Amino acid sequence: MQRIEGVSKLVGRERYVDDLDLGEHLWGATVRSPVPRGRVTDLRFSAEVDWSEFTIVVHTDVPGDNTVFLLEADQPVLVAEEIRHIHEPIVLLAHPSRDAVRRAAKQVDVGVDPADPYFDFRAAPTAGQLQRGDDNVLKRLEINKGDVGAALAAAAHVVEGVYETGAQEHVYLETQGMVAWVEDGVVCIKGSMQCPYYVAKAAERALGLDREHLRVMHAPTGGGFGGKEEFPSIIAIHTALLAMKSGQTVKMIYERTEDMAATTKRHPSRVRHRTGLDGDGCLLAQDIEVILDGGAYQTLSPVVLSRAIIHAAGPYTCDNVRIVGKAMLTNSVPYGAFRGFGAPQSQFANERHMDVVAGRLSLDPVEFRRRNLIKDGDCTATGQVIDDGTDRVGVMELALARADYFDRRAEHRNFNAQHAYLRRGLGLATFFHGAGFTGAGEVHLASRVMVAGLPDGRVEVLTSSTEMGQGSRTVLTQIAAQRLGYAPVDIVIVDPDTHRVPDSGPTVASRTSMVVGRILDDACAALRQRLGDAELRGDALRAAIAAWHRENPGGRLSAEASYRPPPGVQWDEENYRGEAYGAFAWAAYVAEVEVDLRTYTVRCIGFRAVQEIGRVLNETLARGQIQGGVVQGIGWALLEECMLHEGAMVNNQLTNYVIPTSADVPPIDVIFLENPYEEGALGAKGIGELPLDGPAPALANAVADALGVEPNVIPMTPERMMDLIEGTATHD
Amino acid sequence: MTDSRIEISFTLNRRPVTLRVDPRSRLLDLLRYDLGLPGTKEGCGEGECGACTVHLDGVPVNSCLVPAWQVRDRAVLTIEDTAEAAVERMLDAGTTQCGACTPGVVMTARWLEANPRLLERFSARHLMAGNLCRCTGYDGIIDGIEIPVPDREEA
Ligand code: FES
Ligand code: FES
Questions:
Q1: pLDDT for A510-523, tens place per residue?
Q2: Which residues of A touch B26 (CB under 8 A)?
Q3: CATH no. for B6-77
């Protein structure tokens, strides 16, 4: 099936938030903190500006709690006094002219009494830098299995390594944007977002409104990747505050520079490994420490940390595992959700480390993985027994075959021996990604989906799942059409609007197809049940729906279903034991690189991505998800460096934050293996985030193969490669 | 306040237009906010992303970098000029995901398809490198372009 809104996007008809025809309206802008830590002493409004033309909002204008509620109420809507990071919002302005309001925002001076900021999350804070407890640890989590100490003591080999990853900016092509207005006493917010109900919950609390008086609507969203998971709550509340104070419609669209400097990024990480092996190269013990920079507020860091540690030991069999995770509170701009959600960081470290271990043992990395990849009947670090019938070694062998791995390696050896300055290499990564919320997360969400039969026989689908490019509208249409025996044109997906659709949970964690799709499945069954015949399909169903409406004029024929946990899923949140996810997707990626010793640049010249994802619901969409995710991963590994100064990105322009272009990447060869997952919609497991986990370690392993160096820090920019090749690397 | 705007005439999507523009305004804003053609997108505002691509006298340009008055007496073609039938191949190839880069991508692709000889000297991957896309990984974009040469060599 073709993407439903595809034509409208291809001919420029899709209307994003900045494209909406609002008539007369104001433009909003934000005045931000100039320092990373301190207290606001005064605000000086320049005499050059006629402020009577502006709507001005400060913290005392926040009618409810001055907090952007998510997990904790720690982040203010607008700074009252204490500044915890640079670019923190302090004053909001609105004016009919976009240019005038943007100029005016630069004419407000914030006076501050600065304090000592804490930036290096890898080093302990000094007394003056303490801001949480006695160590600035935001969240600590631990997984324990077996006896790591004893196993390490008994091991034939112990191999250690330290791995680091940098921040990554989402670069959704559409920047953050929101409009707000007040209509019949209801505050209405519409804009670019992944999770309308997150926005609604945060806005209700900050604006002091109940559900009836706050309405949040999703506008077509130009990319999210996690960057529009939690952040939109902030800009939504800001825009609503300006609309409430001015009584007019207000639009706030971030410029690219503001978006890059002031919004969330992928958490920087440092991971230490200590691994014990027996004489045959089988894993005996994995001792792992994962540290994330959480930034200045909690956002979703505890949950990111959770996913990071659960994936930190990789898809391997090992009886003794200890994983300690810490997220640090610093004075950097808060880090937040980004596709992969911690797993790319911890699996970069693990997959890179597995090659280092194999190297120390003089084992081929492929052979090392054949011996250690998890087999059915074995259990993960949390004690989750894997028994899904997937042949994980087979997934790897297929990737190697697609890449012609062994012959190509031999060719590269020859090439490298002869070429003056180019070196080629191949690298492998085998990894997994748990789909849906962790542990009991889905049970707590208790997501709901509604369907309704319309008088003409068509069926409406009501969910809060948002379309941001990943194809959820199309896939949900497909699922409903298939279940009801309908043509796709007879399924109507309702635009997410908190006054119309039930809460189906956030559009995150690769959960829409697998989890929401499954509930939709149940809702379709409930609709037929309501009509008294569970077998109704196609024309018979249409006729039954039309007949119901004739008998009940003006009535609403709707049916709802909610989340049912798959049987046998047990999760112990206290001890981090049990079934962390209903299902894992499994993958093996092979990257081929060419390093130029004159310029120290690394190019990816070939890429194979093999994954087992349950069932492919839509080949074009699924392939596009993998290809796009892989290229984001290539960018993170090779090009994308957030230059941080005082905790904020200073290369906050697309001119000097470089993401891959079409000329920087090879075609991405994507192969799907299907092993249907009974609890997912039509057998599907989630795939959205999986492709971020594999590219970075595969590329680093390929660089190691090409040069015989140990690239354990990404991004592998020319500067870092020069250090590595010339032997001057200085990372800790 | 005296009106500093200047009157210009040009051809927009094959129709003549005459209007007064602020000499500081960008072609991108003129199209989006004054002429009611919001199909053209802003991704960066500094000539890096290509989301704002339109054709000026048949050549793709970044409309965020073009002062509006510079289109005087010239021909501007925007995404709104694109026929549905012309995008069928792209629809099947997965050229669009979130769609924010798509209008720019389609305008550059249309230029390529109208000038196939370019592909004798440069690969589609190089010719499309001025259009950033964060969603597709580019295969969907390259596959969506009608390339008349026999082998679709992608360097
Ligand atoms: S908006 Fe013009 S190139 Fe990015
Ligand atoms: S489709 Fe989203 S940026 Fe290209």
A1: 898 889 999 999 99
A2: none
A3: 3.10.20.30
Distance, in Å, from the CA atom of A35 to the CA atom of A646, rounded to the nearest integer, reads 8
Q: Quote the CA–CA distance of A204 and A243 in Å, as a whole number.
A: 15
> What is the whole-number distance in angstroms between the Cα of residue A537 and the centre of ligand 1?
49
DSSP A625-673: HHHHHHHHHHHHHHT----EETTEES--STTTS----GGGS--EEEEEE
Q: Does the pLDDT of residue A617 top 90, yes or no?
A: yes
Lowest mean pLDDT among A351-360, A426-435, A723-732: A723-732
Structure tokens at A666: 């090879």
Would B6-77 and B84-145 be classified into the same CATH topology?
no
> Does the structure's ipTM exceed the value 0.95?
yes
pLDDT mean over A485-509: 96
CB distance A654 to A171 below 8 Å: yes
With 0-12 CB in 10 A as exposed, 13-18 as middle and 19+ as buried, what is A24?
exposed
The verdict on a CB contact (< 8 Å) between A654 and B48 is yes
Structure tokens at A109: 């001076």
Enter the DSSP assignment of A18: G
Under the banding of pLDDT at 50, 70 and 90, the label for residue A138 is: very high
Concatenating the DSSP letter of every residue in A450-504 gives EEEE-TTS-EEEE-----SSS-HHHHHHHHHHHHHT--GGGEEEPPPBTTTS---
**pLDDT of the residue at A566:** 85
Confidence (pLDDT) at B154: 47
B17 lines ligand 1 (CB under 6 A): no
Domains of chain A: 16-115+175-262 (3.90.1170.50), 269-437+576-725 (3.30.365.10), 447-562 (3.30.365.10)
pLDDT at A643 over 70: yes
State the CATH architecture for B84-145.
Orthogonal Bundle (1.10)
Provide the residue ranges of all domains of chain B, joining segments of one domain with +: 6-77, 84-145
How far apart CA A294 and CA A267 sit, in angstroms, is 6
Flag whether residue A18 sits within 8 Å of chain B, measured between CB atoms: yes
Residue A406 main-chain phi, psi, to 5 deg: -70, -40
Q: Is the CB of B44 under 6 A from ligand 2?
A: no
Q: What's the rounded Cα separation, in Å, for the pair B76 and A456?
A: 44
Q: Tell me, yes or no, if A623 comes closer than 8 A to chain B by beta carbon.
A: yes
Dist. CA A482–CA A477, nearest whole Å: 8
Res. A731: pLDDT tops 50:
no
Which of the residues in chain B have pLDDT under 70? 1-2, 148-155
Ligand 1 in reach of B98 Cβ (< 6 A): no
The answer, as to whether pTM is greater than 0.95, is yes
